[in-house]
Amino acid sequence: MFKLIGLLLCCWASLSAGRLTTSGRDFYYNGQKVFLSGANIAWNSYGYDFGNGQYTANSKSTLESWLTQISTNGGNSIRIWLHVEGANTPAFDSNGLVTGPDSTGTMINDMRSFLDFAQSKDILVIFVLWNGAYLREQNTINLFWDEVKLQSYIDNALKPMVSALGNHPALGAWEIMNEPEGSLFNNQANGNPCFDTTPLKDTGAGWTNLYIPMQNILKFVNWQADGVKQANSAALVTLGSWSEHAQTDTKSQSRNYYTDSCLVAGGGRANGKLDFYQMHTYSYNGQWNTDAPFKVSGSSYGLDKPLVIGEFASVCAQNEGIQNLFQYAYDNSYQGVWSWQYNAGGECSDTQATQNSGMNKLKGQNGAAGAVTFPVGF
């Protein structure tokens, strides 16, 4: 009898635990259909927000202030970068093997502290592991080329982080990489369509000149996604693609390289897949691409999983205004939208006031796209 009661309590606690989930092309939290609305924090201190004592010393008070403002203005989710290029974390030894999440042992506690505060503000966190848009650290570049080094990261850094934090109610998802197409070997023919980048020939991909073949990038993503799932099978995984060109088969000059089949073809690990897609979009000379997210419906991309507009800014748009852009995403078959970026620095960044205005437009909405305001937790 007591054993049965204990089992029932265990199951009840498991079912009650807050977690972002997917079903078809929709997000759910605690059984409620939700729409992810918020901002890219990206970073306060580029690559030095977490680990090696940096969080408390450099970023905690600022990041908590930003979470408070985002919550006050109706945001329910944020995207923040972890290792970035790999200058501060993870910990590498002299041979380029990863030995831990960081060198001093504060990384996981830093991340937990951030998640705890985010939960108190009803905000979900997407942790972005790496940055492919700008990558200069050789130890990190080597992970694309050396399987032993990549596996050392998965075993000694990624899995410990996911095991420790994967059930946190405020943990929305793990993003393997921001804009890997920046480091891509573009216009490289291959007999396997998953590895053939000639469809991207004139799209601008490959701007870092690192010339990493698509097959290597897919292995990089596949192995880490599988590592996340090994550590916590219910954790969500995504990837932030630089545009629609690399995440759809329905538009011109485009190919979806991150399908389940392409990821498994690249890395061979059956569980190394994405749970939702994410596209970034910025105008060029004040004009959107014909097939850019703010010109078409999310359903037009022919995807079978939720789709988030993961980066955009009204200053690099088509004069629609931030509130109209947030509302467009909600009304046109997308499942989330995150403005760039809350530190308000650099090219194509909206001010915090502008981003607050956009989030406020969706605050409290609960239409067909899902609830924007919902409690994070049990």
TrEMBL record:
Coiled coil (residue ranges): none
InterPro entries: GH
Signal peptide: 1-18
Keywords attached to this entry: Signal
Domain of life: Eukaryota
Membrane-spanning residues: none
Keyword match Signal: yes
Keyword Repressor attached: no
PANTHER family assigned to the protein according to its UniProt record, in alphabetical order: ENDO-BETA-1,4-MANNANASE, GLYCOSIDE HYDROLASE FAMILY 5 DOMAIN-CONTAINING PROTEIN
Full protein name: Endo-beta-1
